[in-house]
């Protein structure tokens, strides 16, 4: 019953929005706003075929590689910088400088240095996704309870054991918050990186549809991006519940009290 209730809540707003869209387009002939039926037909014709292999899967592959690399690098560097005060003070100005640079600005530079390759697109994704993970990890490590830290030191818990049993659990909620931001940034940068001098991918295909005035097909590509975002969100929520089950359990106990 609870599952059905959750599904009903999840589908209620999309259904309402589609009904509003359908009612708004009744009797209109606006070329730039297709009806739900037209869009559904264009979606099926465009994406249920070869484009899944040539455009969608390569885009998702680059997105996953870039996001996973950003998460691994961000957590590893964040644990190191957050644990060493002098290193944090030493790197803070440089980190703030590079964090302020919008990743799309780097695309022309990376095209010159790396060429128009999949590696370039992955690096663009990493350049934007790494910051929320890195900065949240640093702040999470800094916010570790001093009593717990002193207790671990007193009992001689150091090295990897300290990281595994103290640092990661304590910083886990903030790290996962950074990962969540990283996913949406990665999706945006995936599209942008494919719009520049590319010959495949969702970003390239959507731009081609726009330039050829294939408006329903263009909107169908945007729907694909939205569906990828929704799928990533659900996967993240499931993963977060598994990784931070102790944290969510504690929150439920506190709310019950």
Q: List segments where confidence is low: pLDDT < 50 over at least 5 consecutive residues.
A: none
Main beta sheet, described? none
Q: CATH homologous superfamily of the largest domain - what is it?
A: MetI-like
Termini separation (Å)? 25 Å
Number of helices: 11
Percent helix, as a range, is over 70%
Describe what you observe in this structure.
By secondary structure, the protein is mainly alpha-helical. The chain folds into 2 domains: 36 residues, no CATH class; 208 residues, MetI-like fold (Orthogonal Bundle). The chain starts with a helix and ends with a helix. The mean pLDDT is 88. The protein is built from 11 helices and no strands. 28% of the residues are buried. Helix 2 packs across helix 10, helix 3 packs antiparallel against helix 4 and helix 6 packs across helix 8.
Protein topology:
Layout: H1 2-24, H2 36-47, H3 50-83, H4 85-99, H5 103-114, H6 118-142, H7 146-154, H8 159-194, H9 202-211, H10 215-243, H11 245-256
Short description:
The chain has 257 residues and is an all-alpha fold. The protein has helices spanning 2-24, 36-47, 50-83, 85-99, 103-114, 118-142, 146-154, 159-194, 202-211, 215-243, 245-256. The longest helix has 36 residues, at 159-194.
Name the features:
single chain; 257 residues; MetI-like fold; 2 domains; 11 helices
């Amino acid at each position: 019953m609870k599952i059905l209730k959750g599904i009903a809540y999840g589908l209620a707003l999309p259904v309402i929005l589609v009904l509003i869209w359908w009612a708004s387009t009744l009797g209109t002939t606006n070329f730039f706003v297709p009806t739900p039926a037209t869009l559904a037909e264009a979606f099926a014709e465009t994406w249920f075929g070869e484009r899944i292999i040539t455009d969608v899967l390569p885009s998702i592959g680059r997105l996953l590689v870039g996001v996973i690399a950003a998460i691994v690098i961000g957590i590893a560097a964040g644990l190191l910088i957050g644990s060493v005060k002098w290193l944090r003070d030493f790197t803070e100005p440089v980190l703030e400088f590079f964090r302020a640079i919008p990743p799309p600005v780097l695309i022309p530079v990376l095209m010159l240095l790396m060429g128009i390759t999949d590696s370039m697109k992955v690096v663009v994704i990493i350049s934007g996704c790494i910051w929320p993970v890195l900065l949240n990890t640093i702040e999470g490590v800094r916010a570790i309870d001093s009593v717990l830290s002193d207790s671990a030191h007193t009992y001689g818990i150091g090295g990897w054991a300290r990281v595994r049993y103290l640092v990661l659990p304590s910083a886990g909620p903030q790290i996962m918050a950074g990962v969540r931001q990283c996913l949406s940034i990665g999706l945006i940068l995936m599209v942008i990186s494919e719009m520049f001098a590319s010959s495949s991918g969702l970003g390239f295909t959507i731009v081609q549809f726009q330039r050829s005035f294939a408006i329903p097909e263009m909107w169908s590509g945007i729907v694909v991006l939205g569906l990828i975002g929704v799928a990533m969100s659900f996967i993240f929520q499931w993963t977060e519940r598994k990784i931070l089950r102790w944290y969510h359990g504690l929150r439920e106990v506190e709310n019950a009290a």
